[in-house]
Write a structure and sequence with these properties.
By secondary structure, the chain is an alpha/beta fold. It contains 37 helices and 25 strands. Keywords: Coiled coil, DNA damage, DNA repair, DNA replication, DNA-binding, DNA-directed DNA polymerase, Exonuclease, Hydrolase, Nuclease, Nucleotidyltransferase, Transferase.
């Protein structure tokens, strides 16, 4: 007996597409459906071990159902282009995975599945049908099991005849009768009005079939159901016919021929998965039949494992002898991340020349003072260049142990990030498999040593690619030195007034309790405010407010809905306040409390390779995102204080850096003149756009001009501007037209950068950082419009990020050069925060301002504004 797996191709592709909607390659190919499909198939294949697999697809040609019923599937939305483009590629992948494809004109995939499953049953085979469509449940039998996906494609239920009867109380074939009564909106099958799922099941359980129910219609006690059934009896029978899967399609299918399908083609799959940028799937290719895969390089690694501290000195000495002069040593390690710095650990590290490899148990080494000194001598040897992967996390661990690794010459992770920003999130294993397709990564310690050895290949590959793409300057002048700076900032941390945080905990709880009481009073009852379902019931049923939007599970109560209802009832404003306060409380009061380390400081982790814009991000906890528009959010900054009584906080931030960058890259004379003449750009824009002398520009006009200025940077449409300013779309368009007529080179720059993005697929910052924008060439107008906005904004935002990073490097180096004890502790967008010794304050203020304003030379002068305070709130 053989085991056959039949896949409902269209159904699984559709499910996978909506489960993984945002998978796009760097060349703009949507791949979410393909990725989800392959993962699902490989999981099922692993669970079931089928002898052969067949995948059925729908054809575009009309089926017999369309011919019998003109309105069949009428009104169904056209398949999104982003999904449609994935079908041909999916079929090519299946072909090379030894999966037969069946599709027949005039019939749906369901009919092909039904026919094939019956044919296999009759030949004594065991059949599994994989689908996301419950219609296929009618095929469940003693020999055919239907595997239904739910929650996207990650979870399944498996039904044979017995399981179906046990769960639904009817047979699988009677499920067709249920569908006949219910109808199917997605296929535009009528059914009987007023008979939903519950009633349909009840009727079939009682009468066995649609035909028998119609014969006994007079005995049905539910008046409306009885009347509708009599009036729509023909519709019920016809709906049943449309819902019935055909199991005798006339097609020449040789089961033996299907079983002996072509072999798994690993080479072609490797090529396809590389093109589709499926890094993790590349790693799974060896799951194909061993005898069908081409032999890969031997990966059993020859390495010395250093377990005992007394063995380290000899091992490092041997390794050093194997390293030629000026040749690098590769360094790779693991780091256990934790919000508290004291809990971050390294359990192993690997050091490699090209031929010799050491796997070091760091837990034992770090616990031994003499061994630690030996390791320190090796890592601090400036004659030994070191290449690594994500070195910052290692530096933080080493520095806390008193080791300051020297001559970090290359970080593979940083290079990958600059070459392709999304690759900054990849593990070394994924990066290796993507860039070195011949790689075969073993498991365990062999794998860690093997990946370390591959750092040399990645170093050579990425160095060459950075040279070609003119990224060397950005890499070596900014990103690589910044790595050590960020490590120092993590170790330094930000001191916290824990007593004040405790007081705020009490205050926030009192405010939340008060808001709860007010909301309950306005609602007339207590309920779970955090439950969208319960809140929806209160707002739209009990209080009878107008329904703005519905979801599959009920009423929408998202922020847009609440904004639209703001003036309809006082409860809305209270609910919005409640959401804001509870979010600040849980994220920044409870969250910050949990992150305080033993030294009383919070040591956030700074991420250098996550944001595609080039900006830094902060996690565990995120100190860059503390809300400043809400009074209680701003108050959270009061808990951040200097390190000691001899210090004060200095904040220095760039003034309008993105608009200054726009002036520089557009070369617009009026903007350049305004900035270099210290003229307020928002006042000048208000004067230009609204035709008012500068001295007569009011606060309101300046605010409107500010919205226009920043709207231009972010590619804002006239519609969005009209919403922001509360004016008509026509007025907003007039404002924008006047703006572009006054600043013509800004308009020319925006038009040209969009054309450049369409042609090249990417845009650049002033320091050559690339941002790939595949969305800009998509057919979907909404996706394309988002791509246009990214093209306009990315060079500006990315250049601002480059400038800030360069400023951090220059400030840090100037502090070190002058042997000052003041230190950088945080960067938030356009702002640097330093813990400054009070006796160094004037020196540091002057130094920071000077280095920030001279970080790069633009056509306009950069301006940095400093302030000091005893808390971050004051500063």
């Amino acid at each position: 007996m053989s085991r056959l797996l039949i896949i409902d191709g269209n159904s699984i592709m559709n499910r996978a597409f909506y489960a993984n909607p945002k998978f796009i390659t760097s060349k703009g190919m949507h791949t979410g459906a393909i990725y989800g499909f392959i993962n699902m198939m490989m999981k099922i294949k692993g669970d079931l071990s089928p002898d052969y697999i067949v995948c059925a697809f729908d054809r575009k040609a009309p089926t017999f159902r369309h011919l019998e019923y003109d309105d069949y599937k009428a009104g169904r939305k056209k398949m999104p282009e982003e999904l449609a483009m994935q079908f041909p590629v999916m079929k090519e992948v299946l072909k090379h995975m030894a999966v037969d494809i069946l599709e027949i004109d005039g019939f749906e995939a369901d009919d092909v599945i039904g026919t094939l499953s019956l044919k296999a049953e009759n030949e004594g085979d065991e059949v599994y049908v994989l689908s996301g469509d419950k219609d296929t449940l009618q095929l469940a039998s003693d020999k055919t099991k239907v595997v239904i996906t739910k929650k996207g494609v990650s979870v399944v239920d498996v039904y044979d005849r017995e399981k179906f009867i046990e769960e639904f109380g009817i047979t699988p074939t009677q499920f067709i009768d249920v569908k006949g009564f219910m109808g199917d909106a997605s296929d535009n099958i009528k059914g009987v009005p007023g008979i939903g799922e519950k009633t349909a099941f009840k009727l079939i359980k009682e009468y066995g079939s649609i035909e028998n129910t119609i014969e006994n219609a007079e005995n049905i006690t539910m008046k409306k159901v009885r009347e509708n059934l009599i009036a729509h009896a023909e519709d019920a029978i016809f709906s049943k016919k449309l819902a019935t899967i055909i199991r005798d399609v006339q097609v020449d299918m040789d089961m033996e021929q299907l079983k002996s399908s072509e072999a798994y083609d690993v080479n072609e799959l490797r090529r396809l998965f590389s093109e589709l940028e499926f890094r993790t799937l590349l790693a799974k290719l060896s799951d194909g039949p061993a005898e069908e895969a081409e032999p890969k390089e031997a990966v059993k690694m020859d390495f010395m494992e250093v377990e005992q501290p007394e063995d380290l000195e000899g091992a490092l000495s041997d390794l050093k002898k194997d390293i030629a002069e000026d040749q690098p040593v590769a360094l790779y390690f693991d780091v256990h991340h934790a919000p508290k710095l004291s809990e971050r650990e390294m359990s192993w590290m690997v050091l490699s020349s090209r031929d010799k490899h050491l796997y070091i148990n760091t837990k034992n080494i770090f616990a031994d003072e003499k061994a630690l000194d030996v390791l320190k001598d090796f890592l601090e040897d400036e004659r030994l260049p070191k290449i690594s992967f994500d070195i910052k996390d290692g530096l933080t661990i080493f520095k806390r142990l008193g080791i300051e690794p020297k001559s970090i010459s290359f970080d593979v992770n940083l290079a990958a990030y600059l070459l392709e920003p999304t690759d900054g999130k990849l593990t070394l294993k994924d990066l290796t498999l993507k860039n070195l397709p011949e790689a075969a990564v073993p498991e365990g310690k062999d794998g860690e040593v093997y990946l370390t050895s591959k750092l040399f290949d990645l170093y050579e590959k990425f160095s060459e690619e950075m040279e070609e793409t003119e990224l060397h300057g950005l890499y070596y002048e900014v990103e690589l030195p910044l790595t050590g700076i960020l490590s120092d900032m993590e170790i330094e941390g930000f001191n916290v007034n824990e007593a004040l945080l405790d007081e705020m905990t009490v205050t926030f709880k009192e405010d939340i309790d008060q808001l709860e009481k007010e909301i309950y009073d306005l609602a007339g009852e207590a309920f779970n405010i955090n439950s969208p379902k319960q809140l929806g019931t209160i707002l739209f049923e009990r209080l009878d407010l107008p329904v703005i939007k519905k979801t599959k599970t009920g009423y929408s109560t998202n922020v847009d809905v609440l904004e639209a209802l703001k003036d309809k009832h006082p409860i809305i404003e209270k609910v919005m306040q409640y959401r804001t306060v509870t979010k600040i409380y849980s994220t920044y009061i409870v969250g910050l409390k949990a992150a305080i380390d033993g030294d009383g400081r919070i040591h956030s982790t700074f991420n250098q390779t996550l944001a595609t814009t080039g900006r830094l991000s902060s996690t565990d906890p995120n100190l860059q995102n503390i809300p400043i528009r809400h009074e209680m959010g701003r108050a959270v900054r009061k808990v951040f204080i200097p390190h000691d009584e001899d210090s004060i906080l200095l904040s220095c931030d760039y003034s309008q850096i993105e608009l200054r960058v726009l002036a520089h890259i557009s070369g617009d004379e009026k903007m350049i003149e305004a900035y270099n003449g210290d003229i307020d750009i928002h006042t000048k824009t208000a004067s230009e756009v609204f035709g008012v002398p500068m001295e007569e520009v009011s606060y309101a006009l300046r605010s409107s001009a500010k919205a226009v200025n920043f709207g231009i940077i972010y590619g804002m449409s006239d519609f969005s501007l009209s919403q922001d300013l509360g004016i008509t779309r026509k007025e907003a368009k007039e404002y924008m037209d006047i703006y572009f007529s006054r600043y013509p080179k800004v308009k020319a720059y925006l038009d040209n950068i969009v054309l450049e993005a369409k042609e090249k697929g990417f845009v650049r910052t002033i320091m050559n950082r690339r941002r790939y924008i595949p969305e800009i060439n998509q057919r979907n107008k909404i996706v394309q419009a988002a791509g246009v906005r990214l093209a306009m904004n990315s060079p500006i935002q990315g250049s601002a990020a480059d400038i800030m990073k360069m400023a951090m490097v220059k400030v840090y180096e100037a502090l070190k050069e002058k042997n000052l004890k003041s230190s950088l502790i945080l960067q938030v967008h356009d702002e640097l925060i330093l813990n400054t010794r009070k006796d160094e304050l004037e020196t540091v203020k002057k130094l920071v301002k000077e280095e920030m304003e001279n970080a790069v030379k633009l056509k306009v002068k950069l301006q940095a504004e400093e302030s000091v305070g005893e808390t971050w709130f004051e500063a």
